[in-house]
Design a protein that fits this description.
By secondary structure, the chain is mainly beta. The chain is built from one helix and four strands; from the N terminus they run ββββα. The strands form two sheets. A two-stranded antiparallel sheet has the order 1-4. A two-stranded antiparallel sheet has the order 2-3. A hairpin with a 5-residue loop joins strand 2 and strand 3. It is rod-shaped. 3% of the residues are buried.
Length: 58
Amino acid sequence: MMPQITPRVCRACDGFATATITTGLHAADGTRDIVRVNCPTCRGLGHTIPAALHRAGK
């Protein structure tokens, strides 16, 4: 039986993988312009893959 692997919380973002930033500008319909930024370490997932699996390509 294979061991159960649980994903680890990303150290860089503590699980808050995406931030939404307002630019300060407004669109024609009155909504705010926003930019979504993902954590570069976990690529917006909020957790990291164990190094052994990453090296194995799984």
